[in-house]
Design a protein that fits this description.
- This protein is α/β, with parallel strands linked by helices.
- Helices cover about 25% and strands about 25% of the residues.
- It has helices at about 10-20, 45-60, 80-90, 105-115, 130-135, 150-165, 215-225, 240-250, 270-280, 295-300, 305-315, 325-340, 490, and strands at about 30-35, 65-70, 100, 120-125, 175, 190-195, 210, 230, 255-260, 265, 325, 345, 345, 350-355, 365-370, 380-385, 385-390, 410-415, 420-425, 435-440, 455-460, 460, 465-475, 500-505, 520, 525-530, 540-545.
- Helix 7 (about 215-225) crosses helix 8 (about 240-250) and helix 11 (about 305-315) packs across helix 12 (about 325-340).
- The longest helix has 16 residues, at about 45-60.
- The chain is elongated and about 100 Å long.
- About 40% of the residues are buried.
C-alpha cells in the first residue's frame, strides 16, 4: 500500500472512518481514491489530498486507487499522466489499481441511457447562453427548458445520434431532470454529457460525446467500490447531485462523500489556472521551476518527500478554510535537513584573503566532521592554503554595532583553522575591496589564543583548491501573503524570487555531490544539487531554505 507511514494525526475524517469500521459498514472495508485530472502537474495542495487518501487507506489496511479523470481530452496529455504517477510514487505511495475515467465510458453511456429510460434525463437543444439564463440565480428559481418534456423514445434516439457524431459541438447536451426550482443550483437539471469531437489519448476517435465531471465521478467511485470519497469543500454543494445520480441508478455501492478544507498557503497560488498562466507567460522557467508550488518544482528546490508528508500531517485535516504560514512548510524541511544533511563550506560572494606570514605554496589538510551531531557520518579532509576566499558579508571596513566578523585591525577565527588579523585592504579604482592581507597566529590551531578573546568565526574555501559553482537563491515567488489580492499577477511577482550567483566557490568535496543530494552550507543555509543542471564539471546548487526562520522578521 505505502512505503511510508500512514497519516497518524487525528482528524474528523478518521473519526468518521473509525465509526464506520467499528459498525461493520462496507463489511469493515476502507477503499479510497486519488482522482486528478491530467491537465497539469500536481502541486502541494494535491499532496495534501494524496497523503489523506493513501494515508486513510493505509491505516485501515484498505486500498487506494489512482484514477485519472480524463473526460476533457482537449486539455489532457500523457505528459501529465506520467508526471502525476511519478509524483505520487516519489511522495512514497503505491496505488492499489491504476484506473481512468475513460475505462468506464461504455458503462457511463449505458447508465445515462438508463436515466433516460427512467425519464430522469433528457436531451436539451438550447444554446449555452439559453441554458445559463434558464438556470436562474441564487435568489431566483430556474425555468424549465422547452425540451424538458421530450419523450423517452426521442431522447434515446437523439442521445444515440449524439454518440454517433451526427451533431456539431454545442448543438445538444444531455441534462438530468431534477428540480429547476431547487435552492441548490447544482440540482437544476445539470448537464451530464456534451458533444466534443476531440481525439482522446486513450479512446481515440471512438467518442463524440464526453461525460461531465459530476456525473463521471460518482459513477466511477461506485464502479470501483470506493467506500469514502474524500474531496475538498468546493464539492460540498455538489454532494446532493452525487447522491442523486447513484440513487437513481441503484448502484450496488454507494460511496460516502466527505469534504475537507483545501490548502491555502501564504505567498503561493494553487489555482491551476494561475499556475498555467505563470508557465505560459514565462514568469517562471517551467512547471519544474524551484519557485513553483508544483511537487516537481518543490522537489527540484530540495524539498523531500518526507518533509512534504510531515507538512501535510502537521497542518491536519479540517472543515474550515485557513491560511497556512510559509514558516510551517519551511520548518518541516529545515528540521529534517538539520538532522540529515552533511555540512560543507561554500563562499557565495568571494573576497580573497592572503595570509602574508605563511610561505608561498603553503598547504595543510584539516579534518572536518561531516555532521557535528552524528559521529557515524565520518569526516572529510579540507585543504587550507595561503590564499583563501571568505564571503564579502564577513568583512566590514566600517563595522555596524555588535559586528563579530573580520574588520581592519581585529582578529577572527577561520572555521576549524587559525585566528587571523586583517592588516591591509586592497581596492580597485572604484573602491571595491579586492583582497585582504592578513597575518595569522600559529598557536591558535585547535586552541584559543593566549590572553585575548576572539568572538567571531567565519567560513572559508581554499583559493587554490576551491571549485567554481553556480548557486541559485530562491525566495517567495510573490510579495503578498495572498497574491490574488494584487491588481494583476504581474504586480504580485517578487522581482528577487530568483537570484543566480555565478562566481561562487565551494570546497572540493562538493564536486562529488550527486544530483538531488542535500547539504548544509555552513552559516548560510540548506542547499541541493540541481536535479537537472548539476554536474561535477559545472556544479549547480539551489537554496532550499535559509538556515533559520526569517519569517518572524
Amino acid at each position: 500500500m505505502s512505503r511510508s507511514e500512514p497519516v497518524e494525526a487525528s482528524n474528523f475524517i478518521r473519526n468518521i472512518v473509525d465509526k464506520d469500521v467499528a459498525a461493520g459498514k462496507n463489511d469493515g472495508q476502507v477503499v479510497t481514491r486519488f482522482p486528478p485530472e491530467p491537465n497539469g502537474y500536481l502541486h502541494i495542495g494535491h499532496a495534501k489530498s494524496i497523503c489523506l487518501n493513501f494515508g486513510i487507506a493505509g491505516r485501515y489496511n484498505g486500498r487506494c486507487n489512482l484514477r485519472f479523470d480524463d473526460t476533457n481530452p482537449e486539455r489532457e496529455s500523457e505528459e501529465y499522466v506520467n508526471a502525476i504517477k511519478q509524483d505520487v510514487s516519489w511522495l512514497g505511495f503505491e496505488w492499489n489499481e491504476l484506473r481512468h475515467a475513460s475505462d468506464y465510458f461504455d458503462d457511463l453511456y449505458e447508465f445515462a441511457r438508463d436515466l433516460i429510460r427512467q425519464d430522469k434525463a433528457y436531451v436539451d437543444s438550447s444554446t449555452a447562453e439559453e441554458v445559463r439564463e434558464m438556470r436562474g440565480s441564487l435568489t431566483e428559481p430556474g425555468t424549465p427548458s422547452p425540451y424538458r418534456d421530450r419523450s423517452i423514445e426521442e431522447n434515446l434516439d437523439l442521445f444515440q445520434r449524439m454518440k454517433d457524431g451526427e451533431f456539431n459541438d454545442g448543438e445538444h447536451i444531455l441534462r438530468a431532470k431534477i428540480d429547476m426550482a431547487s435552492g441548490n443550483i447544482n440540482m437544476r437539471d445539470p448537464t451530464l454529457y456534451r458533444i466534443r469531437k476531440v481525439h482522446h489519448v486513450r479512446t481515440g476517435d471512438k467518442w463524440s460525446i464526453y461525460p461531465m465531471y459530476d456525473y463521471t465521478h460518482c459513477v466511477s467511485d461506485a464502479i470501483e467500490g470506493i467506500t469514502h470519497s474524500l474531496c475538498t469543500l468546493e464539492f460540498e454543494d455538489h454532494r446532493p447531485l452525487y447522491d442523486w445520480v447513484l440513487d437513481q441508478l441503484k448502484t450496488s455501492c454507494h460511496p460516502q462523500q466527505i469534504e475537507f478544507a483545501r490548502l491555502s498557503l501564504e505567498y503561493t497560488m494553487l489555482s491551476k489556472r494561475r499556475i498555467i498562466q505563470l508557465v505560459e507567460d514565462k514568469h517562471v522557467h517551467g512547471w519544474d521551476d524551484p519557485r513553483m508550488p508544483t511537487i516537481i518544482g518543490m522537489r527540484r528546490r530540495g524539498y523531500t518527500a518526507a518533509s512534504l508528508r510531515d507538512f501535510c500531517e502537521r497542518i491536519g485535516i479540517t472543515k474550515n478554510d485557513a491560511w497556512i504560514e510559509m514558516a510551517v512548510l519551511e520548518t518541516c524541511i529545515r528540521d529534517q535537513l538539520n538532522k540529515e544533511a552533511p555540512r560543507r563550506m561554500a563562499v557565495l560572494d568571494p573576497i580573497k584573503v592572503t595570509i602574508t606570514d605563511l610561505p608561498e605554496g603553503h598547504e595543510q589538510m584539516f579534518s572536518f566532521a561531516n555532521h557535528p551531531q552524528d559521529e557515524s557520518a565520518g569526516t572529510r579532509e579540507v585543504p587550507f592554503t595561503r590564499e583563501v576566499f571568505i564571503d564579502r558579508d564577513d568583512f566590514a571596513e566600517v563595522p555596524p554595532p555588535k559586528y563579530q566578523r573580520l574588520v581592519p585591525g581585529r582578529e577572527v577565527r577561520l572555521r576549524g583553522s587559525y585566528v587571523i588579523k586583517c592588516e591591509e585592504i586592497i581596492k580597485d579604482e572604484t573602491g571595491k575591496v579586492l583582497e585582504l592581507r592578513c597575518t595569522h597566529d600559529p598557536d591558535t590551531l585547535g586552541k584559543k589564543p593566549e590572553g585575548r578573546k576572539v568572538k567571531g568565526v567565519i567560513h572559508w574555501v581554499s583559493a587554490v583548491h576551491g571549485i567554481p559553482a553556480q548557486v541559485r537563491l530562491y525566495n517567495p515567488l510573490f510579495t503578498l501573503p495572498d497574491p490574488a489580492k494584487a491588481d494583476s499577477l504581474e504586480a504580485a511577482i517578487n522581482p528577487e524570487s530568483e537570484i543566480v550567483l555565478n562566481s561562487c566557490v565551494i570546497e572540493p568535496a562538493l564536486q562529488q555531490a550527486e544530483s538531488e543530494q542535500h547539504f548544509q552550507f555552513e552559516r548560510i543555509g540548506y542547499f541541493v544539487a540541481d536535479r537537472y543542471d548539476h554536474t561535477a564539471a559545472s556544479p549547480v546548487f539551489n537554496r532550499t531554505v535559509t538556515l533559520r526562520d526569517t519569517w518572524a522578521k
